[in-house]
């Protein structure tokens, strides 16, 4: 016989399972939250800007390379080699700079995810208390469970209510 206290009845009424173990899909939690959608949109927009910048630089470098190739027959070998080496160095510097920008975008996305989970923690802790759970496990790491233990949808709605997209509070805003 299982005795349910007042908290258990309340938890069941609002769709929160009464269970010792809850599960959550953190990837979906982040991706489907207002915070995660805002972050993804910002990263996507910045990635598009970077891609456009890369295409423009590629076109400029291609034009410069063709010009250098066209001038080669009229140049002394040593003079051409100096220009070719300078061009190669320029290409490498640009490539390193653009790669650094791409890495910074990835790091921004990773940092936003960490900030999101930090901001979501109080909401998840409240869900644990309300359900009487002692632990929340990553759903993808669980071999078998009842769908009733998954609180991802409820967590998303509560986190959205608590922190929204994070923009107003500056959580995970453009760094």
Automatic annotation (TrEMBL):
<dbReference type="InterPro" id="IPR005632">
    <property type="entry name" value="Chaperone_Skp"/>
</dbReference>
<feature type="coiled-coil region">
    <location>
        <begin position="40"/>
        <end position="115"/>
    </location>
</feature>
<dbReference type="InterPro" id="IPR024930">
    <property type="entry name" value="Skp_dom_sf"/>
</dbReference>
<protein>
    <submittedName>
        <fullName>OmpH family outer membrane protein</fullName>
    </submittedName>
</protein>
<keyword id="KW-0175">Coiled coil</keyword>
<dbReference type="Pfam" id="PF03938">
    <property type="entry name" value="OmpH"/>
</dbReference>
<dbReference type="GO" id="GO:0051082">
    <property type="term" value="F:unfolded protein binding"/>
</dbReference>
